[in-house]
Design goal:
This protein has two domains: 101 residues, N-terminal domain of the delta subunit of the F1F0-ATP synthase (Peroxidase, domain 1), CATH 1.10.520.20; 73 residues, no CATH class. It is α+β, with helices and mostly antiparallel strands and 186 residues long. The N and C termini lie far apart (46 Å). It has a four-stranded mixed β-sheet. The longest helix is centred in the first third of the chain and has 19 residues. This is ATP synthase subunit delta. Keywords: ATP synthesis, Cell membrane, CF(1), Hydrogen ion transport, Ion transport, Membrane, Transport.
Length: 186
Amino acid sequence: MAQSSSPISGVAERYAGSLFELALQANSVAQVEADLNSFAAMLEGSADLTRLINSPVFSSEDQAKAIAAIADKAGITGLTGNFLRVVAQNRRLFAIPGMIKAFRQIAAEHRGETAAEVTSAHALTDAQQTELKAALKSVAGKDVAITVTVDPSLLGGLVVKIGSRQIDTSLKTKLNSLKLALKEVG
């Protein structure tokens, strides 16, 4: 995996790597990945949870108690639940999104897949996701695990990131390019 100069991503990669090794030993990589996806969905849907993990105002005890309660309520137990508690106790909750992303990449590589981040203007149907995976497989040369996020500001189209490559077919980018071209003409 490419090393980043960001201290957050370095922390995230180390924690994700350790979690992956533990999950591999316990033969529970799929369960841990599902639990992390569940937590990521909760994080995406809750401004309060996002504030909890990003704010330095909360003590590590408060964060640990809150994360334990959230994990228990969501049914995130075992290795993932313990992992979240350790991260909270070590005051590393700010790096959780990066840890989840890094874990997904490591797990995909282990399965012989490559990970792709897809941002679309609207939610993709299962058929569209299947078609997109097939198209990306032909480009990447191996199976592709996709993570889809929705960004209505794109207006239409997709932004696909595979490793260091980015394919941007969004309407927003095309309109901005057209706007620049028109400024150069006039």
